[in-house]
Specification:
The complex is a heterodimer of chains A (about 160) and B (about 190). Chain A has about 160 residues and is an all-alpha fold. Chain A contains six helices and no strands. In chain B, helix 1 packs across helix 2 and helix 2 crosses helix 6. The chains are: A mainly alpha (about 160), B mainly alpha (about 190).
C-alpha cells in the first residue's frame, strides 16, 4: 500500500468500515511508516476531540427570545385591521358597482368576455375584456383578504400567558 | 386536552414541568402556552448555543444565531407533527436556520478572539481544531458539528441536511480527512 492510498482510507479504517484484507494491509503500512502513523493518530483522536469541543458559557436566551416573539405578536392586530378593511372595501365596491341584481349581469359579462378570450364568441367586448378583469380582480381581492384573515386567526391562537 | 404528564397545577393554571417530554412541551407551546415554550428554550439553549458557536466561532454571533433558531422554532411550531419525535425535526430547523444565517451574513467566520469566555482561555489544542473547522465548507462543518458535538445519529443528520446516508458519510469522511491534514500540518510548524 502507498502512503496516498493509506491516507485516503484512514477515516474508514478508524470507523471500522474497511474490509479485513484492506485493514490488514493498512495496519502493516502504519507499522512501517511513521508519517502515516502520525496521520492515523490524529484521525483516531478526531471524533473524541470534536465531541469535546469547548464553547463559552451559554447565556440565558429565554428573555430575549420571548421578547422578540411577543413583539412580533403585537403587530397582527394592525394586520387584522388592514385585512378586515380590505374585505369590507372589496365587498362594498362589488355591491356599489352593480348591486346584487347587477352582480348577475357582471358575472354574465365576465362569462361573455371569457368566451371571447377562449374564441367561442365573436363579439368583441368594450373595453377589452373589461368586465372579466374587473370581476376577477374584485373576487381576487375578496379571496385574498379572506385568506389573510384566516391566516391571522390561526396565528392569533397563541396568546400571551 | 394536550398531554401534560408531569405537569403541576399552580395558581389555577397547568404549568409545564421540567420532566415533561420535549414533544409534550412542543404541543403545549403550539397551543399558545408561553411557559412551555420557555421550558423548551431552557432545555435546549446550552446545546443550541454550543452548536451555533462551533458553526460561527464568535460568541456574539453565536448568541444571535441561537436566538434566531428559537424565534424560528416558535414560528414553525404550527408545522410540527406532534406524532413525531421533536429533536430530529428541531435540529433540521436549526441546521437550515444556520445555513441561511451564514448565507445572509456572507462572511467567513474568523478564529475566536477569546472574548466571551469569561476569563477561561480556550485550550490551545481546541483552538487549533476550531480554526481547522472554520476552513471547512459550512455544510460539511454543520454535518460534523451536528453528529459529533450535538450528538445526533447519522440518520438524524442525513434527514436534517436532506442527504442520503451514503452521501453524508462520504461528506463527513472528506471533512475529517481535511481536518486531519490541517491538524498534522499545524503540528509540524
Amino acid at each position: 500500500m502507498t502512503c496516498r492510498s493509506v491516507r485516503g482510507r484512514l477515516e474508514a479504517y478508524v470507523d471500522g468500515r474497511l474490509e479485513a484484507p484492506a485493514a490488514q494491509g493498512l495496519r502493516a503500512h502504519l507499522l512501517a511508516c511513521p508519517a502515516c502513523a502520525e496521520q492515523h493518530r490524529v484521525a483516531a483522536m478526531l471524533p473524541a476531540r470534536l465531541r469535546a469541543l469547548p464553547a463559552p458559557a451559554a447565556p440565558d436566551l429565554a428573555p430575549a427570545v420571548l421578547a422578540r416573539v411577543r413583539a412580533a405578536r403585537g403587530r397582527p392586530e394592525l394586520s387584522f385591521a388592514l385585512a378586515t378593511l380590505e374585505l369590507v372595501l372589496g365587498c362594498l365596491i362589488l355591491v356599489q358597482l352593480s348591486g346584487f341584481a347587477g352582480l348577475a349581469t357582471a358575472a354574465g359579462g365576465a362569462l361573455r368576455d371569457a368566451g371571447w378570450l377562449l374564441g367561442s364568441s365573436r363579439s368583441t367586448p368594450v373595453p377589452v375584456p373589461g368586465d372579466l378583469f374587473l370581476f376577477l380582480g374584485l373576487v381576487g381581492l375578496i379571496a385574498c383578504s379572506a385568506a389573510h384573515l384566516a391566516l391571522l386567526s390561526r396565528s392569533g391562537r397563541r396568546r400571551l400567558v | 386536552m394536550p398531554c401534560v404528564s408531569g405537569a403541576v397545577v399552580a395558581l389555577g393554571r397547568v404549568r409545564p414541568a421540567v420532566e415533561d417530554s420535549s414533544e409534550a412541551l412542543a404541543r403545549l407551546a403550539t397551543g399558545g402556552d408561553d411557559r412551555a415554550f420557555e421550558a423548551l428554550i431552557r432545555r435546549y439553549q446550552r446545546r443550541v448555543h454550543g452548536f451555533a458557536y462551533q458553526h460561527l466561532h464568535d460568541p456574539d454571533e453565536a448568541q444571535d444565531l441561537a436566538q434566531e433558531i428559537f424565534v424560528r422554532l416558535y414560528r414553525a411550531l404550527d408545522r410540527y407533527d406532534t406524532a413525531r419525535a421533536f429533536e430530529p425535526w428541531f435540529w433540521k430547523l436549526a441546521a437550515n436556520v444556520s445555513l441561511n444565517y451564514i448565507r445572509r451574513n456572507a462572511r467567513t467566520p474568523s478564529p475566536d478572539s477569546g472574548e466571551g469566555w469569561g476569563g477561561d482561555a480556550q485550550p490551545p489544542e481546541a483552538a487549533g481544531l476550531g480554526e481547522a473547522l472554520l476552513e471547512l465548507e459550512p455544510s460539511s462543518r454543520l454535518a460534523l458539528v451536528l453528529h459529533y458535538y450535538s450528538g445526533l445519529s447519522l440518520e438524524e443528520v442525513s434527514a436534517a441536511l436532506g442527504l442520503t446516508l451514503s452521501a453524508l458519510k462520504s461528506r463527513m469522511h472528506r471533512a475529517r480527512a481535511s481536518l486531519r491534514r490541517s491538524l498534522v500540518e499545524a503540528a509540524a510548524w
